[in-house]
Amino acid sequence: MSDPADALLASWSANAEAWTDAVRERRIASRREITDAAIVAAVLRHRPRRLLDVGCGEGWLCRALAGKVEAITGVDGAPALIESARASGGADFRCVDYARLIEAPEAAGSGHDLIVCNFALLDDRVEALLAALARIAAPGARLLIQTVHPLAVEPPYADGWRTERFAGFGDAPWAAMPWMFRTLGTWVATLAPAWRIVAIEEPRAPDAPMPASLLMVAGKG
User: Fold this and answer.
1) What is the value of pTM for the model shown?
2) Measured between alpha carbons, how far is residue 149 from residues 112, 119, 146 in Å?
3) Could you list the residue range(s) of the whole structural domain that residue 140 is in?
4) Pairing of strands 50-54, 71-76
5) How many CA atoms lie within 13 A of 51 on its CB side?
6) Residue 38 — left, alpha, or beta (φ > 0 → left; ψ -120 to 50 → alpha)?
7) How many domains in the chain?
8) Beta 137-148 vs 213-220: how paired, if at all?
9) d(Cα 65, Cα 63) in Å, to the nearest integer?
10) 182 torsion bin: left (phi>0), alpha (psi -120 to 50), beta (else)
11) Per-residue pLDDT, 1
12) Mean pLDDT across the stretch 36-41?
């Protein structure tokens, strides 16, 4: 498969069962120590009524917020992950890949006052996707993006495709996943056409020498 974005989506389908097990059994240290709690706390600070979880995976964030947010929609492009999410409940889960979201964002609903992309913006179409999401966001909406902290990734510090092999995530036969690394400057430029950054946070586990993630808060531009 020549297109890394296609290979990325295919890897999520191949890894769906192993990923679901890793998340639900809390095998991923950074999530267990800080990043899961960081995104839940960030969402609750905004007190949303209608939330869209983009790249919801097996639905853990939607479940964590069930009963705290009036209406939650989760979208993901991997059918097997959406199947797992629906089986556990907690939200309106829809199988919608990013290419379709870019062309027809209304497939994810509309009027969302908070949109969350939690470690979900991994391909090379992020600017177009964020512009599409702005079209279905309510006036005054906020966007939360949590992603790998650029300084926590091995050099070179330059935009480009990397490969995730899921070391330490369990003994399942993981399929390697291509993903697009972005510098902080590139993240800011990518957001700028449709969104205005209002805050940048760097969640860090106690006593950890480096932040575990980059958490950006933006409003409609």
Assistant:
1) 0.97
2) 26, 10, 9
3) 4-220
4) parallel
5) 31
6) alpha
7) 1
8) antiparallel
9) 5
10) beta
11) 46
12) 98
